[in-house]
Specification:
Layout: E1 3-13, E2 18-26, E3 29-34, E4 39-44, E5 49-52, E6 54-59, H1 75-84, E7 87-95, H2 102-114, E8 120-121, E9 124-126, H3 132-144, E10 149-153, H4 163-176, E11 179-183, H5 187-199, H6 205-211, H7 214-231, E12 235-237, H8 243-254, E13 259-263, H9 265-269, H10 272-275, H11 293-305, E14 310-311, H12 320-323, H13 345-355, H14 361-375, E15 393-403, E16 420-430, E17 433-437, E18 440-441, H15 467-474
Parallel strand pairs: 1-4, 1-5, 6-7, 7-8, 7-9, 9-10, 10-11, 11-12, 12-13, 13-14
Antiparallel strand pairs: 1-2, 2-3, 5-15, 15-16, 16-17, 17-18
Helix pairs in contact: 3-4, 4-7, 5-6, 7-8, 8-11
């Protein structure tokens, strides 16, 4: 029986190896890897790199911010933009706000994605209301439905959890098998400083970068690591931006703790100087903010040595009106936080990482796809090129050069305008179907499918008690209320 499709003559790269091979596809899956494969249809990949499609495990799509601003992208525009940049799976957030019932939140996001996504998607939750019904009923049900991770905030008045609440949600995650993702910044430092700045009329975006201090990140990471160690709960620190933050994770890992880290393009390619351009700096504002060259270097080092497991976009796409709701008078406290990055995440890392000799091609695949799948319970269905895996594949032209103008999301801008990039995914397949062909969209709206995720090794507790917990166990003293 001939195969449906063969990708012929390319250099196939996975996290483990690089080889010249044809890839045979039958239906939605990879059916063969080898030389001289034939099929009904052929994609000629000679001179090209054939990589697993990217997995973006941190992006915000069709999501209301805590201040009530809707992202500019819906599930169609975001996933179209992602596909053009070589990403074939996204894991965005279903955001619970303080008064929301988690069941309704989850149902709403399923409705939003089902009819629009052009690539496959999973969900994380954002837990802002860890009350009894949420922790005892709604969250376990959501986890059982394949939503095996959720984010919590240590800052923002409307979403932050107290340390006691963080311990509660960690205990629930441990019990029901979910990975806790943490936005780690110290609320007191940020609100103390920003209160003073706003009162004095220092409201330009540049003060956003001042108020979210480096120390605010490092303190919160150290604190949340202590909380996680107490209840033996693995954690993943999202959007790490500082040398001290990376170091705090490195030290926790050196002690054998399951603490994972993530960084994003804005912390490798932007600095606080990009924000310090007057009111227009709002377009570059995200939390935590980009820092300086030394911080960029620390994030690169963290990616290279495995302290930071994954590289995600944190695509938080707001159009100008969301960024500047009061026009020129908007204070940095009123701006929607976040920058777009779904489409350029991979091409930026390819050019400035692989192209500049900072990382190898195999590390690129690991950081953009394989580790996301492994960490979030999608491996080996997604994130690799292997017989039996979904045929989610990006064929890269390593020599295609572009100057960034505009991306396909709906923000109307990109923070990376004017950058020279070399290397671009020219053909992209999702479950065996070409969804981008020679740079043109070939996907039908709504073809993307929800991915129920399995418990991953990352979220399995260590089974190691701190002395106080061990003592309680010895005394047979229960912790449950
Ligand atoms: N955190 C994110 O992860 N994204 C956007 C804003 C924020 O604070
Ligand atoms: Zn965050
Ligand atoms: Zn985010």
């Amino acid at each position: 029986m001939p195969l449906d499709l063969v990708i012929r003559g390319g250099t196939v790269v996975t996290a483990e190896k690089q080889l010249r091979a044809d890839i045979g596809i039958e239906g939605e899956r990879i059916a063969a890897l080898g030389e001289g494969l034939s099929a009904r249809r052929v994609i000629d990949a000679s001179g090209k790199l054939v990589l697993p499609g990217g997995i973006d495990s941190h992006c915000h799509i069709e999501q209301l911010s805590s201040m009530g601003v809707m992202t500019a992208d819906d599930f169609y525009s975001a996933t179209v933009s992602a596909a053009h940049g070589g990403t074939t799976t996204v894991i965005p957030f279903c955001a619970q706000h303080r008064n929301d019932d988690l069941r309704k939140v989850l149902a709403d996001y399923h409705d939003r994605a089902r009819t629009k996504a052009v690539i496959d998607y999973g969900f994380h939750l954002i837990i802002a209301n860890p009350d009894e019904p949420t922790l005892r009923g709604h969250l376990p049900a959501a986890i059982a439905s394949g939503v095996r991770s959720f984010k919590i905030f240590m800052t923002y008045e409307r979403t932050r959890l107290t340390d006691e609440q963080i311990l509660d949600v960690m205990a629930a995650a441990r019990r029901h098998g979910a990975l806790v993702m943490v936005h780690a910044e110290n609320q007191g430092i940020i609100s103390w400083l920003s209160g003073r700045m706003v009162k004095q009329g220092n409201t330009l975006p540049r003060y956003h970068a001042i108020c979210h201090t480096r120390g605010a990140e490092a303190e919160a990471i150290q604190r949340v690591v202590a909380l996680a160690e107490l209840v033996d709960c693995p954690v993943l620190i999202v959007h790490v931006s500082t040398p001290d933050g990376v170091e705090a994770i490195r030290q926790a890992r050196a002690r054998g703790l399951k603490v994972f880290g993530e960084t994003c393009p804005q912390y490798l390619f932007l600095t606080a100087k990009d924000i310090d351009i007057g009111i227009e700096g709002a377009l570059f504002c995200c939390s935590p903010p980009p820092r300086d060259e030394a911080a960029q270097e620390a994030c690169w080092r963290g990616l290279k040595d495995g302290t930071l497991q994954v590289y995600s976009s944190d695509h938080a796409p707001y159009a100008r009106e969301g960024k500047l709701p009061q026009g020129e008078k908007t204070t940095f406290k009123e701006m929607a936080n976040g920058v777009p990055g779904l489409e350029l995440r991979l091409p930026l890392l390819f050019s400035y990482g692989v192209g500049a000799g900072r990382i190898t091609l195999r590390e690129f695949v690991n950081l953009t796809a394989t580790r996301h799948a492994q960490t979030y319970g999608l491996y080996p269905r997604k994130g690799t090129i292997a017989v039996g895996s979904d045929a989610d594949i990006a064929v890269w032209d390593p020599r295609k050069a572009i100057t960034v103008e505009q991306t396909r999301d709906r923000t109307g801008y990109t923070p990376y305008k004017g950058r020279r990039l070399e290397g671009w995914p020219v053909t992209v397949l999702s479950r065996g179907e070409p969804i981008v062909q020679d740079g043109k969209l070939a996907a039908e709206r709504g073809r993307g499918r929800f991915l129920a995720r399995e418990p991953s090794e990352a979220l399995r507790p260590l089974g190691r008690d701190v002395p106080e917990m061990a003592q309680l166990k010895e005394w047979k003293t229960p912790l449950e209320l």
